């Protein structure tokens, strides 16, 4: 894997993790 590909993958994983954390936060606050 070259640096550009790994960087894009890392960004996607970060965005995915952040999305999960936001959804968990919504469940905790009673949003969903």
What attributes characterize this protein structure?
32 residues; 84% helix; 1 helix; mainly alpha
Description:
The chain has 1 helix and no strands. With 32 residues, the protein is mainly alpha-helical. The mean pLDDT is 82.
Which residues form runs of ≥5 with pLDDT under 50? none
Structural class: mainly alpha
How many individual β-strands? 0
Task: Give, in order, the helices and strands.
Answer: H
Spatial shape: rod-shaped
- Put simply, the count of helices is 1
Give the fraction of residues assigned to helices: over 70%
Beta percentage is under 5%
Give the structure's gist in a few sentences.
This protein is mostly helical. It contains one helix and no strands.
Write the layout of secondary structure elements.
Layout: H1 3-29
């Amino acid at each position: 894997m070259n640096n550009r590909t790994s960087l894009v993958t890392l960004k996607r994983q970060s965005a995915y993790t952040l999305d999960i954390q936001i959804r968990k936060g919504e469940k905790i606050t009673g949003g969903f």
